[in-house]
Write a structure and sequence with these properties.
Strand order of the largest sheet: 7-8-9-10-11
Structural class: alpha+beta
Helix content: 10-25%
Radius of gyration: 32 Å
Shape: elongated
Number of helices: 14
Number of strands: 36
């Protein structure tokens, strides 16, 4: 319930009386206008569900509302007043006018000017100023329509940049200031301009790099949350079909891979690309309408696109500018993934490399992530105030050491910090880089005994191809592991790879193609069905005869003999034969 703030009579006179009306919210989804005596003057259908809170506008009735083209601002017109608000609802500024009631409002196409028509016939035009951006000790503010003021926080130096035309956009990041006016772009790697008709990628020296083209892509519907850029990749959400994301190469503007877009299961709200590392390991983050946060690979070579769900109930996210660390607002708290790629390498370690900061008391509900630089996240509260959150600086340093191939320094950092989270990150890096020694040390520090034993088994394998394939299996890259084994002529190990990962169709396909170990494949499939108390449903297995099935002991002996035969065959084919060694081999447990 809330009383109307409207007054009758002239301000300051004794005849001023408050209005006797009040508004009341009800559980049936309606709100009612009532007099002091309790008489209901009118009921309005508000929404589905109970109306929990109602408030009068202290400045009187709003007659017009207009959203900026990019959806970040909206303006509200009332009697002799215009209010500029953020998309979350808090107010930037209030301007008093002498136009009477503002009945209609329109934004310019670039979102920097707004025109409004008053009830007395006057038309007013306003310019959005005092737009402020910050990066790594520098601040830039658009103080008026043609001036940008840049200040160095460290030494207090200030510079005023005057432009001939009206400033429409400004951005400050990566040691570069970019100012876009109505006719020119001033650049004080790559940046992107979207003019409503095309997408242009420029280098920082002003050279046009590319202009990606896609017939099904509406560039006039492209906004910041549906666009992502890195040194290697451009990702654009299709405004006509919000489940579709197109990927382009930054250097050429050509579609990546076969040109097919990513089609998500739900409408996409926000996308983002990591900014560091090689193109092959680049990752794309998708936030969909269900508030689910997904991480997926960008470049795919003959395999299905890797994708995993990081969390649910996320409202926004941001990548670090200096390393591939991801931060997101999850249930109004800040969650940080210090090595999100570990979800593909070893999903068991994802929780160890994730830290949730309980920030509801400090930042309130629905905080907005503005920037993430090194160990500092800049956050805007729901009331518009800006604050910062400091996270651990060591993961960012670890990322930079690994990127420059300084593994010994990275190991020393982990030993000095003595943090399990940092050791888990190092284990993921080492597994991805196929560094057995470093991976063994890191897994031992986080007490992953099974993985330490498996790495020791891998180190004991006689062939480099076997070690590479097993490390690929450890990091979840089964198709790449199969390719390594097949190229090395280790067909039986390739079959066993799929049997041990329950990829039954591919296992019998390889056995039939190479005419090898078909009885082992059928016997392991039958043992699996018996243990699971299931019947056969796969057509490839239904068409095979059942008379050659092996018992459990015979199956183990047959697998051992096949390993020995394959190893002897490979050693006989080498130019410099090596003496046979008694190595442990993976066996089937039934």
């Amino acid at each position: 319930m809330d009383w109307s703030p409207r007054q009758r009579g002239k301000q300051g006179s004794k005849s001023v009386q408050t209005c006797d009306n009040f508004i009341l919210g009800a559980t049936d989804g309606r709100f009612y206008l009532l007099t002091r005596n309790g008489k209901a003057d009118k009921g309005v259908e508000a929404h589905q569900g109970a109306v929990l809170a109602v408030r009068w506008n202290q400045d009187g009735t709003s007659f017009a509302t207009a959203w900026a083209p990019d959806g970040q601002l909206f303006a509200v017109g009332s009697f002799n007043m215009m209010r500029l608000c953020d998309r979350h609802g808090w107010s930037y500024a209030v301007v008093k006018t002498q136009t009477g009631s503002l009945l209609n409002m329109r934004w310019s196409a670039d979102g920097t000017q707004i025109a409004a028509a008053g009830g007395n016939g006057e038309i007013i035009v306003g310019q959005v100023t005092d737009r402020w951006i910050e990066w790594n000790g520098f601040e830039a503010a658009v103080v008026d329509e043609r001036t940008v003021e840049v200040q160095n926080i460290r030494n207090g130096a200030t510079e005023h940049l005057e432009f001939r035309d009206r400033v429409t956009k400004a951005s400050l990041a990566y040691n570069q200031l970019i100012v876009v006016t109505s006719s020119q772009c001033y650049v004080y790697r790559y940046f992107v301009l979207v003019d409503g008709m095309n997408i242009y990628v420029y280098s920082y020296d002003g050279r046009l790099v590319c202009s990606p083209k896609q017939p099904n892509l509406r560039t006039d519907l492209v906004h910041a949350t549906g666009f992502a850029l890195s040194n290697d990749t451009i990702a654009v959400k299709n405004g006509m079909d919000e489940k579709t994301i197109y990927l382009f190469e930054t250097a050429s503007g050509k579609p990546i891979g076969d040109g097919k877009p990513i089609v998500h299961s739900n409408d996409v709200v926000q996308i983002g690309l990591d900014q560091c590392g090689p193109p092959l390991h680049q990752r794309l983050v998708i936030l969909d309408r269900n508030k689910d946060l997904y991480l997926m690979s960008v470049r795919v070579f003959g395999t299905n696109r890797k994708s995993t769900k990081l969390t649910t109930m996320a409202s926004s996210f941001i990548w670090s500018q200096t390393s591939n660390i991801l931060a997101a607002v999850v249930n109004d708290n800040i969650s940080v993934w210090y090595y999100p790629n570990i979800a593909f390498v070893d999903s068991d370690l994802l929780a160890l490399t994730t830290h949730e900061h309980d920030t509801q008391e400090e930042f309130g509900k629905q905080p907005e992530l503005l920037s993430f630089y090194r160990d500092r996240i800049t956050i805007r509260r729901i009331n518009g105030s800006v604050s910062s959150l400091t996270v651990s600086p060591y993961p960012d340093k670890l990322h930079q050491l690994i990127a420059t191939n300084k593994w010994n320094e990275a190991l020393s950092l982990c030993r000095n910090v003595k943090d399990k989270m940092l050791w888990a990150c190092l284990a993921g890096f080492a597994t991805c880089a196929k560094d057995l020694d470093m991976a063994e040390i890191a897994f031992a520090e986080i007490e992953e005994v099974d993985k330490v034993e498996y790495i020791r088994y891998i180190k004991g394998l006689p062939k480099k191809e076997m070690q590479t394939a097993e490390m690929l299996m450890l990091s979840g890259e089964y198709q790449d592991a199969e390719g390594v084994l097949l190229q090395a002529g280790l067909y039986f190990r390739a079959i066993m790879l799929h049997l041990n990962s329950y990829n039954w169709n591919r296992a019998i396909e390889l056995a039939t193609k190479h005419k090898l170990a078909l009885d082992i494949v059928l016997s392991m499939r039958q043992a699996y069905l018996q243990q699971a108390n299931r019947t056969e449903t796969l057509e490839r297995y239904l068409s095979q005869p059942r008379q050659n099935l092996l018992s459990t002991n015979a199956l183990k002996e047959r697998i051992e003999k096949e390993y020995e035969r394959e190893q002897a065959h490979k050693e006989a084919g080498n130019t410099k034969p090596t003496s046979p060694q008694n190595r442990s081999r993976p066996t089937v447990v039934t």
